Amino acid sequence: MAITSIDGIVAAAAAGRQYKTTWTKQVHPTYAPYTAGRWYDTSQLFGLPTAETFAGTALTAVQCVGPGTPSVCPGCMQTGGTVEPTYNKYLASIEANSYAASNIAFGWLMLVDLLMYYPGINMNSNLMQVLVNNVSLPRYTDGHGVQMYLVANGTTGATASNIHPYGFDYTSNLGTGGRVIPGTVALSASSLPAQIVHSGVAVSNVGPFLPLEASDDGVQSVQTFQLTAATGTSVTATLVLCRPIAQIPIATYLVPSGRDFIFSMPSFPRIYDGAYLNFLFLAGGATAASNDLYAVLDFVWG
After folding, report:
1. Is 201:36 a contact under the CB 8 Å cutoff?
2. Closest to 282 (Cα-Cα) out of 46, 100, 109
3. Can you give the residue ranges of every domain in the chain?
């Protein structure tokens, strides 16, 4: 069953098939300020929901399964419980804001469904690291629209490094293996925990997602990972596969932003049972420690 009209939305709301969830995260009180033009994975920050740790065996794929299935990841938002196969659930709206004396001078929140991750990637090695795929993508199983990002688990070293263009091997949404990242992707030296290490404003930085070969529009899995140089500090990173859902700007602190997905594009995005929703954050300016980010999300199903 799917909602295909405004009448369907009204009927679902009248029947109580709706849910409101709140999300709040705090810029890490130690690892800050955040740098303008860099992206950060808020799932690892303190707040509600609880901080994600990306636990698991190094280099071995872990599925992200959210509430109601049951959950195997601690940091997911509640969306109103399991409704399939009787109903389809949708995101109806988001409101976002920031409250802090030291404001967030513009920022951007991107809502993503975290699907799968590879923990324990060694950032102090230039050797090829072979990833283990003993599980596959949940929800978006064909990989259509699925994107990748690499997030630091600690402060990386100061040595400049790139992602090796021929040492990073992924399988596309069409099931084609041996795909490589096109061109040079540079990492930001001394990246902070929760920072997407390839994002920034320097030459060859990209963000929030890693580029794909021209004919690919998604990823099913990743087979190998390699850096061109060790970064100089023995920390790890996590390679995350996610499906972007929606985005909303934060214009300035104390001024809420709103986005309606009934009349706006992308219109009424589907939220699957087990979705592990969280936000990626683009810092629009130097973002001080302990800044608070807030959002309210409305779901409806029918």
Report:
1. yes
2. 109
3. 27-76+101-257+276-291
Beta strands in the chain (DSSP E): 18-26, 39-41, 46-48, 62-63, 89-99, 107-122, 129-130, 147-152, 162-163, 169-172, 179-180, 185-186, 219-225, 236-250, 257-260, 270-271, 277-283, 292-301
pLDDT at 139: 96
Strand partners, 241: 116, 148
Residues 181 and 206: their CA atoms lie apart, in Å, by: 12
Residue 176 burial (CB count, 10 A): 13
- 68 pLDDT band, cuts 50/70/90, is low
DSSP assignment string, 89-154:
EEEEEEEEEEE-SS---SEEEEEEEEEEEEEEEETT--S-EE-B-SS--SSSTT-BT-EEEEEESS
Query: The dihedral of CA 208, 212, 218, 223: what is its sign?
Result: negative
Residue 5: per-residue pLDDT? 87
Pick the range with the lowest mean pLDDT from 13-22, 72-81, 173-182: 72-81
> What pTM did the predictor assign?
0.94
Distances (CA, A) of 53 to 17, 22, 43, 136: 32, 21, 9, 20
For residue 133, the model assigns a pLDDT of 97
User: What's the farthest any 2 CA atoms get from each other in the chain?
Assistant: 59
